[in-house]
Design goal:
Keywords: 4Fe-4S, DNA damage, DNA repair, Glycosidase, Hydrolase, Iron, Iron-sulfur, Lyase, Metal-binding, Mitochondrion, Nucleus, Transit peptide. By secondary structure, the chain is mostly helical. It has 14 helices and 4 strands. The N and C termini lie far apart (51 Å). Mean pLDDT is 82; it is low at 1-76. Bound molecules: iron/sulfur cluster (SF4). Residues 248-249, 289-290, 295-297, 300, 302-303, 306, 308-309, 312 line the site of iron/sulfur cluster (SF4).
């Protein structure tokens, strides 16, 4: 009988490591006393859907965010609460609801073949974490189906740090081919596996800083490894799908040039309760609807709310 990964492979059990700022649609139950989403915002979103000038509207919205509230004992001492304006895209809540609706069948490749589906659920926890990291390393510039096939071949031989280090480079290359940049990945997998064996007892490190220091591991992989492997939401995992869609929907205050820049821009305003959901949601949306070259805008529920729709 397989046991669930002790430290949390289940996204539902993820815990947050950053400070809460606000809540969005679909977040968990509100704590007592929190304000609901203002009705005025919903009305504004509904009004916006009637408009056909989304580009003009897109960058204007701001909300007032109470960054600090004085305690009862401080009230009446003449101190005013500090109010810091936090930018947010005008229609993001409705856009998110629409994407969830479009993704409700969970039938995109990422839903069946993503990193959280590629490890052996019966392996010991640290082996599972290693397999998660390895599948993430294989997945860059590679379709989910190809990554899943390579993982299947590797797992058939018993996929552990030791087994990889005992496999010669040409055999490893044959096993992972045709993943993108497979020659480089053979080199990175060997180097990373040696470091994991020497410094981490065959496990993966539990911090983003240590993960990105490993050869062939980038920020997106590190945040996903933290989430899937350790059950910790350390940041938004931004790949090319998330980067592209965030820019098309106007979810960044200004156009961003790289996934890392997009991650920073999203984390500035997106409620942290939604951080763990965004990657899988947008990756699948990018695989099925908001395609890189020919997005299916006429069938997209966000057509009237999307600043990019008219220009594609
Ligand atoms: S309208 Fe087109 S560009 Fe905009 S989110 Fe939908 S598919 Fe993507």
């Amino acid at each position: 009988m397989c046991s669930p990964l002790e430290s949390g492979m289940n996204a539902l059990s993820m815990r947050m490591v950053t400070r809460s700022r606000s809540r969005g649609p679909g977040a968990g139950p509100r704590a007592g006393g929190e304000d609901p989403v203002p009705l005025g915002r919903r009305e504004a979103a509904a009004e916006g859907r009637k408009s056909h000038h989304p580009i003009k509207r897109q960058q204007k919205a701001q909300r007032l965010h109470v960054a600090y509230e004085s305690s009862d004992s401080e009230k009446g001492e003449g101190t005013e609460p500090l109010k810091v304006p936090i930018w947010e895209p005008q229609d993001w809540q409705q856009q998110l609801v629409n994407i969830r609706t479009m993704r409700s069948k969970k039938d995109a490749p990422v839903d069946q073949l993503g990193a959280e589906h590629c490890y052996d659920p019966c392996a010991p926890p640290k082996v599972r974490r290693y397999q998660v990291l390895l599948s993430l390393m294989l997945s860059s510039q590679t379709k989910d189906q190809v990554t899943a096939g390579a993982m299947q071949r590797l797992r058939a031989r018993g996929l552990t740090v030791d087994s990889i280090l005992q496999t010669d480079d040409s055999t490893l290359g044959e096993l992972i081919y045709p993943v993108g940049f497979w020659r480089n990945k053979v080199k990175y997998i060997k180097q990373t596996s040696a470091i994991l064996q020497q410094r981490y007892g065959g496990d993966i490190p539990a911090s983003v800083a240590e993960l990105v220091a490993l050869p062939g591991v980038g920020p997106k992989m590190a945040h996903l490894a933290m989430a899937v492997g350790w059950g910790i939401v350390s940041g938004i995992a931004v790949d090319t799908h998330v980067h592209r869609i965030a820019n098309r929907l106007g979810w960044t205050k200004k156009a961003t040039k790289s996934p890392e820049e997009t991650r920073g821009a999203l984390e500035e305003w997106l409620p942290r309760e939604l951080w763990s959901e965004i990657n899988g949601l947008l990756v699948g949306f990018g695989q099925q609807t908001c395609l890189p070259l020919h997005p299916r805008c006429p069938t997209c529920l966000n057509y009237a709310l999307c600043p990019a729709a008219q220009g594609l």
